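Recap quiz, item 2
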Amino acid sequence: MLTKRIIPCLDVRRRKVTKGVRFQNNIDLGDPVEMAVAYSDGGCDELVFYDITASADQRDIDIDMVREVAKAVHIPFAVGGGIKNLEDMRQVLLAGAEKVSVNSLAVQNPNIITQGAKQFGSQCIVLGMDPVGVAKSDKFPSGYEITIEGFRKRTGLDALQWAKHAEELGAGEIVVNSVDADGTQEGFEINLTRLIAENVGIPVVASGGGGTCQHLIDVFNKGKADAAIIASMIHTGRFTIRQIKDKLIAAGIPIRQKW
Amino acid sequence: MITIIDYKAGNLTSVRLAFEHIGCKVKITDKAEEILQAEKIVFPGVGAAKAAMETIKTLNILEAIYKVIADGRPFFGICIGMQLLFKMSEEDGGTKCLGILAGSVKKFKSADRFCKIPQMGWNTVKIIKSHPVFEGIEDQSEFYFVHSYYPSCDEKSNIIGQTEYADAVFASAAGKENLVATQFHPERSGRIGLKLLENFSKWDGRDGKC
């Protein structure tokens, strides 16, 4: 049976993994390559690296870091943040990443999804989205609006419409990162995740808010996510991936057990 | 030395890095003469069947591929590289493939809106028969898959491992004599995947019993 994926997220700034709440008060957590190896050996199913400052300050992607990660871990990993064009995608994929994730760039230039999918295959192109809850209206029928540039800018796009559009354009997967839940450790936003998951034909990854094993159980059972991104719960050392997976298996969720 | 055939179907970096990690020397080539000299051949790839077959013809490497397989050299097809070994694929309105394995490649059908296509992620492989490349790999081990089409073997004795997804129970690993193939990506399947690649790197192409 296809298992639900647990994906540690490593926000990287100048070769250090950082963690903040709603993009504020970031603290250094360690070396990205060492942490990737530790999580991979610990049983995570995939990894995602975001260069959280890249979009705002226009810095180039750290391709050397991508190469080092690819040498050190032999599970899939995605790289997002700071991808500016097709050439960046090519470099990241050739360095050994399985997937690239586009977020602000795709809003500004949706065509990049189609071009990337054509060149490298849909399975490589992940749409990351950062929706924030708003009042339901004609403009926002889902009740969620897409934000970009680290939640700093609103776009006027409805989250569900954007997800469907991205699928048509050729995205192979969608990461739904709730702005309201991000970093809170108070639980994933189940309704938003399920809304996207039941309306697109591609896998949906829930992100933002995971703090306990029950949150993960809920986002898989109720939110219908195919995968979930976690950060604080493991970065703080509060849980190991083994502990999380044992709880999920006990709750009857299909999870990769041997690694 | 492991020779990886580069027929422009996707990114070969992870395959190369995985073999290098287990201490193998790797050569990547798109030239017939280098394929003909290869000791052990890996035929990887992601993407669409028709474009892949067309590129193989354009590169003039089709005969070399047939020749090294017929010669008995260890040959490993991965993902689309497995699918191309069958007679035909339903992809792109029907694509004639290499026809080395009996059977065809079909598209998953899903009646459940939450069962997404492509299959993307880790799924279990039920080992149907022992094979040198699967030595030390436990039954029901999990491997990483990304695909919308699956191989359907006509010759049941070719099936090494099976996996269930959507409407199918399919051959996720198959073999015939010196040829072995997996629908999953061992190069992305962590320690267990590396073990499988290591087994292949040590395999002489015999005793496959498929």
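The radius of gyration of chain B is 16 Å.
The first strand of chain B starts at residue 2 and ends at 5.
End of item.
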